[in-house]
Amino acid sequence: MRRGVEHDPKALQAIMEAASPPDLELAFRPMFGGIFGYADGKAFASLSNVGLALKMTGADHTALSAVPDVKPLRYEPQDPPSKSYLLLPEAVLSDPDNLRSWIARGAAGLKPKTGKPRKNSLEGK
């Protein structure tokens, strides 16, 4: 049984699109009954019936964790908490300027794509 407010992933997508920095290339794809958000091709947002969660790293993760009512993402109460995705409270979702800042910080913290091809772990076996 879920607790709290049920969110509509499509409505969260509209909120996120409206608040996103204009120079950030966003894309969205349905995934696991919700929507995943991508910045410049890299996954960084989970939009689901539990809310909008952003992938944060380092000092940005620590800073967002300190915001009142921010919690690690859990799709179900018994699930272990995410180590990188943080669920945003209504106060952040309803403040486009604040949300824009966190979206920008989350996107900036993503690891850049490397030009190296991945090694196939089955090669040489």
Distance, first to last CA: 46 Å
The strands making up the biggest β-sheet line up spatially as: 1-2-3-4-6-5
What is the helix fraction of residues, given as a range?
25-40%
Q: What does the main sheet amount to? A: 6 strands, antiparallel
Q: What sort of overall outline do the alpha carbons produce when their principal axes are compared?
A: globular
Sketch the topology as an H/E string, one letter per element: HEEEEHEEHH
Report Rg. 16 Å
Distinct helical segment count: 4
Oligomeric status of the shown chains?
Answer: single chain
Structural classification: alpha+beta
Q: Mean pLDDT, nearest integer?
A: 88
Structural write-up:
By secondary structure, the protein is of the alpha+beta class. It is globular and about 35 Å long. About 30% of the residues lie in helices and about 25% in strands. Strands 1-2-3-4-6-5 form a six-stranded antiparallel beta sheet, covered by helices on one side. The protein has helices spanning about 10-20, 60-65, 90-95, 95-110; strands at about 25-30, 35-40, 40-50, 50-55, 70, 85. α1 packs across α4. The mean pLDDT is about 90. It has four helices and six strands; from the N terminus they run αββββαββαα.
Helix-strand layout with pairing:
Elements: H1 9-19, E1 26-31, E2 34-39, E3 42-48, E4 51-55, H2 58-65, E5 71-72, E6 85-87, H3 90-93, H4 96-108
Antiparallel strand pairs: 1-2, 2-3, 3-4, 4-6, 5-6
Helix pairs in contact: 1-4
